[in-house]
């Protein structure tokens, strides 16, 4: 038995300055956990067109984007759900191996939300 894994769902602001403050507040909270290197998943709508969140969260929390296994590879396109063109949603991980990822778009997914659903099959490192 190892450290507890933590999972956070986020929906960040449309405005860059507010997003940075929200990410800093989230990182401060997660840094304050008893086990700051515990396995971690942070996922949700980052409203991050320019892909700045990944570098910020990697620097602060040691996270990597599940859909970007290779450095410089772009995150998945998730908006709008009917035909994704923009990269707004993310799944960031620490302490996990990403086995498989998928973007669920088109019908019936586009009837559920205006964003495509993202999924990642994860395995704890060392298991």
Please describe what this structure looks like.
This protein is an alpha+beta fold and 127 residues long. The chain contains two helices and six strands. The protein has helices at 16-31, 53-61; strands at residues 6-11, 40-45, 64-65, 89-94, 96-104, 117-124. The strands form two sheets. Strands 1-2-4-3 form a four-stranded mixed β-sheet, covered by helices on one side. The chain has a two-stranded antiparallel sheet with strand order 5-6. The longest helix has 16 residues, at 16-31. The protein starts with 5 loop residues before the first strand and ends with a strand.
Summarize it.
This protein is an alpha+beta fold and 127 residues long.
| Arithmetic mean of pLDDT | 88
Unreliable stretches (pLDDT < 50, length at least 5) are none
Number-wise, the strands total 6
By secondary-structure content and strand pairing, the structural class works out as alpha+beta
Instruction: Outline the biggest β-sheet.
Output: 4 strands, mixed
**Overall 3D shape:** globular
- What is the terminal-to-terminal distance? 10 Å
Q: Give the C-alpha Rg.
A: 15 Å
Q: Give the neighbour order of strands across the main sheet.
A: 1-2-4-3
Tally of contiguous helical segments = 2
Helix content: 10-25%
